[in-house]
Write a structure and sequence with these properties.
The chain is of the alpha/beta class. It has 2 domains: about 140 residues, Quinone Oxidoreductase, Chain A, domain 1 (Alpha-Beta Complex), CATH 3.90.180; about 150 residues, NAD(P)-binding Rossmann-like Domain (Rossmann fold). Strands 3, 4, 5, 6, 7, 14 and 15 form a 7-stranded mixed sheet that branches. Strand 9, helix 3 and strand 10 form a beta-alpha-beta unit. Helix 4 packs across helix 5. The two termini are about 20 Å apart. The mean pLDDT is about 95.
């Protein structure tokens, strides 16, 4: 069958453009022994992918110019010669940015389309949800009653972080970039306070107004002035979970860091970054607990859906314009 996939034509300088991507058509062979063929239905686009669009050492290998790109995806097995995968099964894999792929089963998991909407395996029950779960509970060591600040709080990860913290009886403050997002955080995520960072001159001062008793934990998705504000307002022995720093992803040269880093020492703070794939040992625990919260009506999530494989690069670029709500996903076809 004919398959289409995206590859990079060049590494972006600054914000990616459509010229950095090329849609290529190739022919896929029929499955061989112990192989199966998957037709993708949903693809994920994520900020971390920007880090794979540059040369240099990182925690994950960069995309190669002229080679197929990768990303989380959910699809249907349409042909199989594998004993563990049958035609009609739905699977979660990492062969995104394309419409079809062959596999022998490595890194592939069968999912239940009846338990939740199929695309939820790319968001709340996928890497996004697990990132929030691992970061907040394992890395951040969340305690009941903590005072928590979340940047990019309406985003794919941040929105789930907010709700897990509320389930644990915490006071939660979030930042976001539009009135629509602030309203969602207050009405759906039910957090205690939220502010539009685009409408304040001093993030630190605004955070102090909303959390006058200080914060115990900061979940960082942004970096920059948000990290500086958190350092100003963290209580003694506070924790910083470094999940992402989207404010810097498209910088052509490194920006100066916060000028208040000494507070890490004076307030005996702990700051730790993490990579979610290092924590597969708690994946089953995450899936059980998150499913319970979903079924109990304690979790809400939003999706920004783009339809059409050919629109995947634009869906990715839009991540950096701050217009999306929740998880950005691509529906491969109508």
């Amino acid at each position: 069958m004919q398959s289409r996939h995206f590859q990079l034509t060049s590494y972006p300088e600054g914000l990616p453009t459509l010229d950095n991507f090329e849609l290529v058509e190739t022919e896929l062979q029929s499955p061989g022994e112990n192989e199966f063929l998957v037709q993708n239905e949903w693809l994920s686009v994520d900020p971390y992918m920007r880090g794979r669009m540059r040369e240099g050492e990182s925690y994950v290998k960069p995309f190669q110019i002229g080679k197929s790109m990768e990303g989380a995806c959910v699809g249907k097995v349409v042909e199989s010669r594998h004993p563990q995968y049958s035609e009609g099964d739905y699977v979660l894999g990492n062969q995104g940015w394309r419409d079809a792929w062959l596999s022998e089963g490595t890194g592939v998991m069968i999912v239940d389309p009846e338990a939740v909407p199929l695309q939820a395996y790319l968001s709340i029950l996928g890497m996004t949800g697990m990132t929030a779960y691992v970061g907040l509970l394992k890395i951040g060591e969340l305690k009941e009653g903590d005072r928590v600040f979340v940047s990019a709080a309406s985003g794919a990860v941040g929105s789930i972080v907010c709700q897990i913290a509320k389930i644990h009886g915490c006071f939660v403050v979030g930042s976001a970039g539009s009135k629509q997002k602030i309203d969602w955080l207050k009405e759906k995520a039910d957090i205690d306070a939220a502010f539009n960072y685009k409408e304040v001159d001093d993030v630190s001062a605004r955070l102090k107004e909303l959390a006058p008793e200080g914060i115990d934990l900061y979940f960082d998705n942004v970096g920059g002035d948000h990290l500086q504000a958190a350092l100003d307002n963290l209580n003694d022995f506070g924790r910083i979970v470094s999940c992402g720093m989207i404010s810097t992803y498209n910088d052509k040269s490194p920006q100066p860091g916060p000028d208040n880093l000494f507070k890490i020492i004076s307030r005996r703070l702990r700051m730790q970054g993490f990579i979610v794939r290092d924590h597969d040992d708690i994946r089953e625990e995450f899936q059980i607990r998150m499913t319970e919260w979903i079924q109990a009506g304690k979790m809400h999530w939003e999706e920004t859906v783009t339809t059409g494989l050919e629109k995947t690069p634009q869906a990715f670029i839009d991540l950096f314009h701050g217009s999306k709500m929740g998880k950005a996903i691509v529906k491969v076809s109508e």
